[in-house]
């Protein structure tokens, strides 16, 4: 810690010193309760949105399932839209970890589409309700410019992350990762809706074929 004083000067040293774990104030019981309440509400909201959809889920039901009143929701979120956005943004942060196994060292270029298709087929079985709630919310957000802007910002992050995964299989960067991610996610979103209507749809194969054809110099899935 003191080495930084001589290396970076007193101001940087002071910032590091004050932000060191030992200098941070312990969490108060009130802060802990608020954090626990927020976590419980987010979990309840996720389960309710998955179960009945975005439109049919009420704040009263979400609060009740978590053991609180509706006032607890408004104490943490300004609206139902805000609650869903926070939840969606937090869930989206975990997607890169779910794609981490899709690496050139373990998956050939001709199989990257199949790897992502298999991932989607698996999560569709596990989180079908959540995917449908997301599709429903996107339609709601499209009618509200402010809501749409925040929704799009979160989606663009996901687009870029997915695009970066795909570009690992194309040698030197040959395309904008965000643009490639948008194209790939457009395919995935369409497959999600079709799979919701047609349970016999081979999700993995459709995604594999589509992604392989859109990759720069990517071969078609055989």
UniProtKB/TrEMBL annotation:
Key words, A-Z: DNA-binding, Transcription, Transcription regulation
InterPro entries, per the entry: Homeodomain-like_sf, HTH-type_TetR-like_transc_reg, HTH_TetR, Tet_transcr_reg_TetR-rel_C_sf, TetR_C_31
DNA-binding region: 58-77
Source taxon at top rank: Bacteria
Pfam family, one: TetR_C_31
Gene Ontology MF: a single term: transcription cis-regulatory region binding
HTH tetR-type domain segment(s): 35-95
Protein's recorded name: Putative TetR-family regulatory protein
